[in-house]
Structures are given as structure tokens and as C-alpha cells.
Amino acid sequence: QAFALIEFDQAEAFTEQIVQTIDETFSEALYRSADFETEAAFERALHKVNTAIHDLINAHGEAWTYQCNALLGVIHDTSVYVSTTGKVDGYMVQGETITDIIQRSQTTEVQPLKLFSSIVAGKCPERGGLLFTTGNLLDYLSLEKLRRIVKDHTALEAVDYLSGVLSEQDTLANIAAFI
After folding, report:
1. What is the model's pTM?
2. Most buried among 43, 54, 67, 70, using CB within 10 Å?
3. What pLDDT, in 10s, does the model give residues 53-106?
4. DSSP assignment, residue 155?
């Protein structure tokens, strides 16, 4: 199962075209891949997305790439593969622990022609959960609170709970999350 989380710090007139191009290119390349191994198909799909991004840069310039926070991923059985660009956090919750699975430097520079260049791969435990988020979710909730939300709720319940808690904030910034 493929998934994407895409957010822009500032929207441009062509933002919808960018999201649609990334989404369609990724889905088509992944699901039509001749590779039988999920990781190989994922790598090939990322290559095709980066090629499509190159075309978008030729059409619209590269400034938008610095405003893009995105995650592309795939789950097959218990294997998870993700690639990120911009400000995206990823956490695995297992029992009483929450682990940062992205673990990248906040000073990582965006490479416009290779937005999706690194892959995080691993196994999701049967009794665990994953939380991916853009924006400043940690400005509103602690890691411990996020761990309890993911641990104590189904994915749908956790989304509803987070929506409720965040909707009470008066000065909420844009936040996108995937559980």
C-alpha cells in the first residue's frame, strides 16, 4: 500500500499540479513496476518522481522545492519504506517507547533535483504504530502524549482524537499527519 503526505509552507498557483504530478507518478510507477521486490519497486518509483520533479522545475523554477514538506512511502506486510523531503517527522510507537525513525539533521539542505534521495526502511512491529507528520505538531503535543495517543487508540480513533485536540488551538499552524 502506497501513501503520500505533501504540504507546502506557501502555496503557489501551480501547487495542485505539483501534488498531482508527484502523486500520479509515484502511484503509477510503484503499482506498474516490473520489480517483484517492494524495495526495488519503491526505489524505481522515487527515481521516476525525481525525474518528474525535474520537469516541474524546468516549468516553474525551483523555489517551490524549498517550501515542500513531503513523504512518500509504501507498506508491504510489515515492511515499511519511506523517503522524505523538507520538514517531516516520523515516529514508531511500540509499547512504552516512541522512536524517531527519520533521524535526520534539521540542517539538511534540499536538493531540488533529488528531492527524494534517501530511504528509511524497516519492519513495523505487529503491536506497534507509525506516525508521520509535517509542520509543528510537537509545538502542541509532547512526544509522550503522541505515544499514548497512538498506543491507546486505533488509527482512526487516533486521527479523530488529534483532530479534536488540535481544533481547540487558537493559533494552529498547518499540520498534516498520517497514522
Report:
1. 0.87
2. 70
3. 999 999 999 999 999 999 999 999 889 999 999 889 999 998 899 999 887 654
4. H
